[in-house]
Amino acid sequence: MIKKSAHLMLVVLMLLFVFPGIAQKKNIKKIEQLCDKTMKYINKQDYEKASKYVNQIFAIDSNYAKAYVLQGDIYSLTLDAEKSADAYNKAIRLNEKPKPMLYYVAAEEEMKCGRYESAKQNYENYLNSYTTVPPLVNEVGKQLVNCEFSITEITNPMKFSPINMGNAINSEWDEYLPTVTADEEELIITVRRPRDHNTVCALCATEEDFYSSVKVNGVWEMRQPLGAPINSSYNEGAQCISPDGRFLFYTLCNTDFGYGSCDLYWAKRIGDRWGRARNFDPPVNTKFWESQPTIAPDGKTIYFASNRPGGEGGIDIWKTEMLEEGVFSNPENLGKTINTKYDETAPFIHADGRTLYFVSDGHPGFGGRDLFFSTLAPNNTWQEPVNLGTPINTPDDEINIVINASGTTGYFSSDTEGGFGGQDIYSFELDERIRPIPVTYMKGIVQDAVSLKPLETTIELIDLERNQVITSTISDPMTGEFLACILTGTNVMMNVSHPYYPFYSENFQIEKSYSEPEPYVKNILLKKPEIGTTFVLRNIFFDFDKSDLLPASFVELDNLIDYLRKNRAIVVEIGGHTDNQGSPEYNDKLSLERAKSVYDFLIKKGVAPERLSYKGYGERFPVESNDNEVGRAANRRTEFKIIGYQTIE
Q1: What is the value of pTM for the model shown?
Q2: Counting Cβ atoms within 10 Å, is residue 100 exposed (0-12), middle (13-18) or buried (19+)?
Q3: Which CATH architecture has domain 438-528?
Q4: Label partner for 344 (CA 20 to 30 A): which of 78, 221, 551, 587?
């Protein structure tokens, strides 16, 4: 993990302490001269020479407390928290009445190296050293909460065995911020490479670009630069790819054409080529810092981090909606449950649309910036964040995490030893205690039923129980290909819509018990609205032997109404069909009543009566065998048939 910035122990700290004269009087002057030289070289950031003078002090008097504070400063500034904490604690032991700040800085170093019991004691000693309110009471109170949390959590570690993703992904450069498509067949990462002659930043030795890799037969291919027009001479980073792989959202900073220090951008892929990147523009981008976008599977909700005014403090997580392509709503803050007065960054919304992972130093954790997740309840409120636990979280700062659709694998970056150099991308199996709801996906092609021409359509997967879109995507206009996430444990309606072709629908139930759900492959053929053509309404539901429409039918019927409003010349017949259970006379009556229920619903919703008729066909036109329940279920259906066109004035 990336180390935290050194806790700066300014040499002014020395002036806060009074050290007893332990050394012999004849050596005091020499020791103080050595202390002055040590502080001089600390100020110059020459820690090697500073250490040399500290060691000379110890050679004269190994119990000179001030020298241990100086030594602690040197170790702190060189990011060696364990040795720094040891030195500060030695200084505490050598003082009969240490100044309160010494307890504080010792505790801070102990937090960095995970010595939570000792850190807790030093924080408490700091508080107890004051008869009035301590100057750092809020900071110490927060760290005491972290100590209590950490002492408990380290006894119950998460399963965590990270695996380096290899030299097809990683190199001697820094690789970080991975993002994957829902089918885990494409990976995009940020790479910090050496600058070249096109690099805009005059003083920068490196430049950030995007690289991608595709998986072939289960193996990641050698990464390739994403190229123009996405990669530019500026620094691109903090990216996410939509679950279907069609949209890329990312951050571009310090340009001469943006709104603030960092802005959000988006690009769309058609076929195998990315289009021109476009700025989100106001009201999303402002003169402040906007970064780290992540998109939900509904295809419109985008979460991001920003230090804009109106939040809870520091950097907060916000959300906006893509109202139409390239048009975004006014951002909303996620509120106090997620955001604190400190920093919340690096949001990642899982493909389930309900589990948000993010980084925070405001919620109880292990001392640095930790990874958390929160779940969106059915009433659309975020639940109390859960720390991902140790050893995923450490005393250091964590950067971000990405979870695959099935919820089994996490991806992150780390500079741990044994890699290829700098930051590398790692994967690991996610502990079951911190997994999101498993998600599978459907992929296929949408085509004209006769010509097989690829069609650009909108594909929605709708939770019928909640009447809520859980996934929305667009099939590629060049290839007709699509990929849509499916949340397990839901009764799903699939709706494929096109301005000209009548919509296609289907219904299926995904079991909750899946841990590695198998993807669906579905090639969809759309029929043109020609006279005599029949279209099945697969999401019209009735109770057994009844003709009253169930509420789960309303989503499908609303889609039919929308199609008829957009195609005002079409005249249709609603047809009802049954299986062969019961007498033919009874089935004729039931199918007619069900067709009339649909007819009445459409009339009530404003469809002109002259455009509608209804008929019951009973059991006479089965589409499957009535010898089994699967076939009988297919035969119990509602259809609409185009029977003519009317003149529109």
Answers
A1: 0.86
A2: middle
A3: Sandwich (2.60)
A4: 78
